[in-house]
Amino acid sequence: MASVSSRVSPAHLSDARASLRACRLCPRACGTDRTISKNGAFCRLDVRATVYRELLSLGEEPAISPTWLVDLGGCSLRCLFCSEWQHVVQPEAAPAQVLDQTWFLPRLQQRRRQGARTLSFVGGDPTPSLVAVLEVLATVPDADWLPVVWNCNGWLSDTARALLAPVVDTWLVDVKFGNPQCAQRLAGVDGALDALEVTRTLEFARSRGLRLRHLALPGHLDCCTRPVLERLARDYPEVPLNVMPHYLPLGPARTHRLPHAPELQRLLSAAEQVSLVSWQAQWTHAK
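Below the sequence we write its predicted structure tokens.
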């Protein structure tokens, strides 16, 4: 595929493709040769990316709206409260569409005409699909380029961060957990590794248009939300943060019994909502 965008050179694409031969794009570092097969890949993806939804969204943060949201299948986490669970664990399930130039470029033109100011890759998590994303972005003429928002969980390797650096204009990182135990219990990740890699991503993105999100989970305000808010107010006071208070039990939290995480199967209580409002006010004042 010939490179058109000045942001994605042929050499850059070559490096990106090579990274899939023993994939370590996320910290799981499975080492699967995704150019051959998805077997052994935690994300359940081969060299292709799959799009299960796309839309022009007016509901994101004002700085990036209206944005063309491109939802990609697959993920490096397994959050029990994931609203996109089906597309995380079955990235090729209907209505999945392979992300390629033929599909991408006409829709880019359409969404630009409709007023899109930015292009947001999300999921799932877009990081396992970054090579296919770079492939299609390489075909976008500079005159048609939209600023790219990478809406991710922060679980990137140094390789992934370096590959994305030339194309991402805004890093929108969802900081989920306030301690290693909750990361392990609710998302199936090594909690210490989670904290380390998310911190590395935040530091990498800090001077590259970083924005933050945090979803408040029922039963996790003291162990996750409060530590996250305090940490971000202390270490990233200049970075915008969107605290999301409207949790709904989705994914396994809606469809499965979760004896090890029953708190996820309810809404935030009235007392939790009051505490969250108070902590948000304190965090805003601290900034």
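The chain has a mean pLDDT of 94.
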